Prior knowledge:
- The chain contains one helix and 26 strands.
- The chain folds into three domains: 3-107, Immunoglobulins (Immunoglobulin-like); 112-213, Immunoglobulin-like; 313-434, Jelly Rolls.
- By secondary structure, it is of the alpha+beta class.
- It is flat and about 150 Å long.
- It has a five-stranded mixed sheet, with no helix packed on it. Strands 11-18-17-13-15 form a five-stranded mixed sheet, with no helix packed on it. It has a four-stranded antiparallel sheet with strand order 1-3-7-5, with no helix packed on it.
- The chain starts with a strand and ends with a strand.
- Strand 22 and strand 23 form a beta hairpin.
Amino acid sequence: MGATTSLAGKELSVAAGATVSSTVQIRNSGTLVDQFTVDVVGEAVEWSTVEPDVINLMPGTEGQVTVTFAPPRDSTVRAGVVPFGVRVLSREEASQSRVEEGTVQVEPFTDLQVELVPKTSKCRRAARHELVVDNAGNYPIAVEMQAEDPEDELKLDIDHTQLTIEPGTSAFLRLRARPHDRFLRGQERRHPFQVTALTGEAAPITANGTVVQQQLLPKWLLPALLALLALAIIAVTLWFTVLKPTLVSAARDTAEQVVKAEQQKLTDKADAAEAKAAKAEERAAEAEKKVSEGGAVAAANLPGPVTGPGGVDLARGQAFDFRITTDPVATSNLSDFDEFTSDPLPEGKTLVVTDIVLQNPRGDSGTLRILRGDQVLLEFGLNNFRDVDYHYLEPLTFAPGQQLKVAVNCALPGAPEPATGRCRPSVSFSGRIAG
Length: 435
């Protein structure tokens, strides 16, 4: 049969910070000596206790357990009805365990705090404060904020005057205080004011503050102006008595030196021009003499075509521009290279590469090689570049039958390729195809 249980108080009420108790009557209705374990389930388990939590009963006997609820006086337990269950577990007949259900009403309490930061401010035109309103109670509370100064010297503005604050949270409000009257010079003026938080459940809460109004003109301004005026008078005096005559004399001497130097340059240029003209006349006379004597002028030898390695004419041939894209699979073997080739060249043609552009936009890691057949011409680390180009004064040449290949060892694909496990570098080549 297991246990027969009954809960004495199923609807309880308790103030936060206080305690309330109820009893559970347990009867061993089985035929064996049994041990019963009692605990609380539900939201109230954190602030409830059972005494004793284990009870041994002979068949047909009864025992009593006291359950105590003690909600803390803070915002962690909200006001209202909290359901709970008292569970009685039988050691001998676990399937015959029982749960008695009930509710506990947690009474509301108010704990509202208002802080003004800073309490005292200094300003010439307007001061700014911050209001911190803390709700340390256990239920949401509607608050109305009011600001006033007893002397009516300030215009006070709060960005939010009506608000609801949840338990365990704080509201941050901005308060702007602007004096009605301003003054250019004079002693500081102190303007006290108050900020009040009004609620329907508790007495008003007040925070006091002070605005210290200062003169509009900074105190250092007048001494600075006097110092500047004195410096200006000294500068003007020095200018007219010392600097101006000295500068005028120096400028006159400099101008005379510049004029003399320019005159000398013009004279030298004129002499050089006359000398060149005389030499030109002499050369013209010699040329006329040779023509008249029937002499022949030797023709200049024209330069031959510009050739590269292997006698290939770099100024002729067909220009080309192609790109080899790769997609090798990532591997941990550093000697495992996937090879990629270009389209085959026309038979008997020589490939002359003058420019190479390496591209690794995804940031792959590994090694890239450029080969002439099986010969490695260039080797690059993928993580050393994203986009780089090379121009060769001595171009790379591929004789007829030699194949241009790109080999890649993919160590680690870059974003967003890790899912596919492939690297995506590419190489662009440009140059000429010559016969």
